[in-house]
Design brief:
The chain has 284 residues and is of the alpha/beta class. 44% of the residues lie in helices and 13% in strands.
Length: 284
């Protein structure tokens, strides 16, 4: 009996599961989803077996997937996978963060109808998990390897995050294309970032020169946040805005330059609600 048949037995008669809260629960969900696809779509059977079903754990599957995505002639997949596994073994928080990131992606993106889809295909998620390994390399003072990985990730995924940047758990990067995050940026937990967002400096200054993004912030598509400024907890930055000054907690800002146009309600944090609309802005 092969892996696909075993997974088919595991899920036979099962109902839709709740949001996974542990690595084990998420892994069982991914295996179940992969088993269903392999059983009904022969063209993808080998792919999902290679990506999910032949692995013993979420961490092993993620390491293999990440390695395959950026491998090249001078840096083979086996060596990259070993690097990822080493990082995860030394710092288990990397796996815990990856679990939270994948759950965030599934629950905040209406286009993600499963956990397997973003795991296999979403470059925002994959670039983020490479960054978490790369940040480990940076902290280990393996700066040259981190620079190499950053360059490859930028080439493959069009997401450019400096290895020095600390990022909290539950980050959702939607689409990913064109995202740039500078060296001294700090990103809190449960943040959502859409395509073409820049967290950058204002010029040639050195030292601490990039934004500090607190928990629950939503940075809508094309937002540019520049300088050593703070985007307060639960704030929302409207699409295409240019932010050059601190944003208070719970504020909604928009425009060029950005101004306060509203305040959050008692509902979910903007990053969780994923509502990019602006107060009172009917538009055309």
């Amino acid at each position: 009996m092969n892996d696909v048949d075993l997974v088919g037995q595991e899920i036979a008669g099962s109902s839709e599961r709740s949001v996974p809260s542990t690595e084990h629960e998420l892994w069982q969900t991914l295996r179940a989803e992969a088993g269903r696809i392999a059983a009904r779509e022969d063209m993808l059977r080998q792919f999902v077996e290679l990506s999910v079903l032949r692995h013993a754990s979420f961490g092993e599957a993620l390491a293999a997937l990440l390695a395959r995505k950026i491998a090249e002639t001078v840096m083979p997949q086996e060596r990259l996978a070993a690097l990822v596994r080493s990082a995860m073994s030394d710092d288990p928080a990397i796996i815990a963060a990856a679990v939270a990131d994948l759950v965030a992606t599934r629950t905040r993106d209406p286009a993600a109808e499963s956990y397997l889809t973003p795991f296999l295909y979403y470059k925002g998620f994959q670039a983020l998990e490479w960054h978490r390994v790369n940040h480990w390399l940076w902290r280990q003072r393996r700066r040259e390897v981190a620079d190499f990985i950053q360059s490859r990730v930028s080439e493959v995924f069009a997401v450019d995050i400096h290895p020095a940047v600390p990022i909290g758990r539950g980050l959702f990067i939607d689409h990913g294309t064109g995202i740039v995050i500078g060296e001294t940026t700090v990103i809190g937990e449960d943040v959502s970032i859409l395509q073409e967002v820049t967290l950058g400096g204002t010029g040639k200054e050195r030292g601490d020169r990039h934004p500090k993004v607190r928990d629950g912030v939503l940075l809508a598509a094309g937002a540019k946040v520049l300088g050593n400024i703070e985007i307060g907890k639960g704030a929302k930055v409207g699409a295409g805005s240019v932010v050059l000054k601190d944003v208070p907690p719970c504020a909604t800002v928009a425009g060029v330059p950005a101004k306060i146009v509203g305040w959050c309600s008692a509902a979910a944090a903007p990053s969780l609600a994923m509502d990019q609309s602006l107060p009172g802005g009917e538009g055309i």
